[in-house]
Amino acid sequence: MIKFFRKIRYDLMEKNKTGKYFKYAFGEIILVVIGILIALTLSNWNDHRKERIKEKLVLKEISNSINSDLKFFENTLDYRLGLKKEGLDELMRMIGENEKAVSYDTIMKFYDKSETDISINYDSGPYDAVKNYGLEVISNDSLRKLIIKNYEVLFPALKKFGDKTPDLLNPFIEKLKIKVFKKVTSQNDKNVWFLIDTPKDEEILTNSDFKNILSYQDRKYSNYKSRLNYVRKEMIKLNENIIKELEHLNKK
Prior knowledge:
Distance between the termini: 35 Å
């Protein structure tokens, strides 16, 4: 098209038709401008499309990561907390019912369960990846702020305080254990020798230091449980917002 106008313009110059020459020259300029605008529009549209594809991809990855974390909480952390609670509940039942004919092996089986600890871990990989790419790829301001709040502040804080629970309580527990238990050697079925805790007192269920140990373990359980439930609740809420945004993006 441009060549066509240029040929006409040259013909008009040769025939000294200046007025028409300028009209055709102006038309040629308009066509060039329109072409540039169309090209820019198509380029911007294509860039926007690529950004939305990337946005949906990173949101899906964060959502999948949250789902994996929730499964880990259920299959591993809930299971371990269940062991801890089972051990504590059974020992407290024995103490409450003042049971006498309970073997050391039975007591220690449930005591070992009561010592179960957890660490609230989560996968921040997808968030770190989108952070390196540029969080602006998430077009929804509210969702972007919510994701940042959870992964930069909330989740790390809950993990940090959760991990500090044993650090704060274990020194008190260890001091009491020295009073309640003694170390003896034992051998497993692979002929490996190791040290185990054995009660010093035959009436361990009435021992006040032992009861205090269980009290500390119960505090640890309550702390673990509350923090895990809070992280789980916030993850579910965040995931619901991500899924809602993905549905909105897919409709565009």
